[in-house]
Amino acid sequence: MKGVVRITGRACPLGLANVDTDMIIAADHLKTTVRTGLGAHAFAALKGKGTAIDDVAYAGAPILIAGANFGCGSSREHAVWAMMDRGIAAVIAPGYSDIFAGNAFKNGLVAVELPQAAVDALMVGAPDADITIDLETMTVTRGNLSFDFTLDPFRRQCLMEGLDEIAIALREDAAIGDYESHAPTLGWSMGRAFTG
Q: What is the pTM of this model?
């Protein structure tokens, strides 16, 4: 996973509430375990519905501005994979489904939660200027607008350092190796104890 401290770029003003994981990536695309190629199918359910997803001005935008309860529905991790493969590195919304928020964190997608009034202000000027999300200062800025946000300190550190669960475990490689070299081998003796 790649670390992220700052994301700056155009923000796609989707703004819809209750965008579920079916809208993000259809069930037809859930048979793959490969994270690439899903971006072409991201938000296919919203295409042709008059949303900003169709607007070529936002093609490749690294930030998505969404409504409340973003990522609700099924727990598919493919939704995050599809968004990231499309080039989205962060989402700004008033709230997220818990499972989506967890999947976002585990895959390095920054999920910023701001009050609805702040989201509305960012939506209004989205076509005019880039937005910056800064994990160091914990701010979202655009021009003279600035909003503070909070993030669990552990999640923030992992995002900034690019640490997933495996990388976190590998940081303790020496301690794990030391334990394993001194731990008693229980396989045979435990088997014998149970067989009498």
A: 0.85
